Amino acid sequence: MFDDRTDAGERLAAELEARNLAVDVVLGIPRGALPVARPVADTLDADLDVVVARKMGAPQNPEVALGAVASDGSVWYNDDLIDRLHPSEEYLEEVRAAEAENAREKADRYRESGGVPDLRGERVLLVDDGVATGATATACLRQVRGAEADWVGLAVPVGSPRAIDALEREADAVIALRTPADFRAVGQFYRTFDQVSDEEALEYLDREP
């Protein structure tokens, strides 16, 4: 169990330091990833910034991810789930467009220029507070890859074994402190897993709300 996201970030940072991982930029997924990403960036002496993606929910059940789309339009579809649920092409396009716009608006709140920073030729580490389906992480990794980063990694305190396996096909390296067989939800492994507000998240970036 992690006490909270800061504790998880400190433990993750210690593991990455022990591996002698060198990166130029750490990217957190707002909002919950930023308390984890801050100690990682500080320990690795890397810049901290954000990358944004939004889950595309299923009809009548928005918590179920048909996929995810990043602020630049990079998209990942859960083909197995789509084959089972058979949403219409019209629905898929409607939810993709709506969530892409939501992601762009969120990126604009966190970054004046929106999108992602200039990552060409950089070693970039994406950090989240945990991975359940891997939907948003996949969309974010694809956005970073599209930004011509030289190396793209993912580090999380905890993740489902299935999602971590899938994400290894998207990143140059995936580091997870725990991949428990009994994984049900990210919050299951935190004693405190409160919502992080935009104001709090911006403080981790040292930016004004």
Question: How would you describe the overall organization of this protein?
Answer:
Residues 7-163 form the Phosphoribosyltransferase domain. Pfam families: Pribosyltran. One of its GO terms (molecular function) is glycosyltransferase activity. This is Phosphoribosyltransferase. InterPro entries: PRTase-like, PRTase_dom. This protein is an alpha/beta fold and 209 residues long. It folds into two domains: 5-51 and 116-205, Rossmann fold, CATH 3.40.50.2020; 53-108, PRTase-like (Ybab, Chain: A), CATH 3.30.1310. The chain is 38% helix and 22% strand. It contains seven helices and eight strands. The chain has helices at 5-18, 34-44, 79-85, 89-110, 135-146, 161-167, 198-204, and strands at 25-28, 47-50, 53-58, 61-70, 75-77, 123-127, 151-158, 173-178. A five-stranded parallel sheet has the order 2-1-6-7-8, with helices on both faces. A three-stranded antiparallel sheet has the order 3-4-5. The longest helix has 22 residues, at 89-110.
